[in-house]
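Summary of Year 1 activities. Much of the first year was spent building the evaluation harness for sequence design. The harness presents a backbone, in tokenized form, and records the residue chosen at every position. We chose the following record to illustrate the format because it has been used consistently in internal testing since the harness was completed.
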């Protein structure tokens, strides 16, 4: 059974508008995420829009699709991955020195049976895969911070 919530956060010395510009450009997701190799929105950035994605872990590549479920400019961007029903979100909050960025993966109802089977049989099991996802979230946030502060 997957953990209901995985989360990472970072404080960035840049205005919310600059951080939002980086996070909301989904075509840049491969620059941030160690696992994402492609994220292509179909029909622009808007609530309800679909994306086509390619992920990579070592020698494994797999495609996914998602739908943008929440889009509040300079506050929140969330999308639901159709294949495993997880919801990924980025939330931005102004701070005295810039922006707090929080990345979350929600799986309140677990992930799909197919997803659990593949993770357990091909990717070393759910616990190690989720540890790797949190490491990847921290890496993504660190990369976004570096870009926003440069």
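For this record, the design step produced the sequence shown next.
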């Amino acid at each position: 059974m997957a953990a209901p919530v995985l989360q990472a956060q970072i404080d960035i010395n840049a205005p919310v508008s600059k951080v939002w510009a980086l996070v909301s450009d989904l075509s840049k997701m491969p620059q941030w995420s160690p696992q994402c190799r492609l994220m292509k929105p179909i029909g622009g950035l808007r609530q309800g829009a679909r994306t086509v994605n390619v992920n990579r872990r070592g020698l494994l590549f797999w495609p996914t699709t998602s739908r943008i479920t929440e889009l509040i400019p300079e506050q929140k961007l969330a999308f639901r991955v159709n294949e495993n029903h997880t919801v990924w979100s980025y939330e931005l909050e102004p701070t005295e020195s810039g922006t707090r960025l929080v990345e979350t993966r929600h799986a309140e109802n677990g992930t799909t049976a197919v997803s659990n089977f593949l993770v357990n049989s091909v990717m070393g099991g759910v616990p190690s895969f989720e540890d790797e996802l949190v490491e990847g979230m921290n890496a993504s946030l660190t990369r976004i911070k570096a870009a926003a502060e440069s």
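Residues 5-149 form a domain with the Alpha-D-Glucose-1,6-Bisphosphate; Chain A, domain 4 fold (CATH 3.30.530.20). Quantitative recovery figures across the full test set are reported in Table 2.
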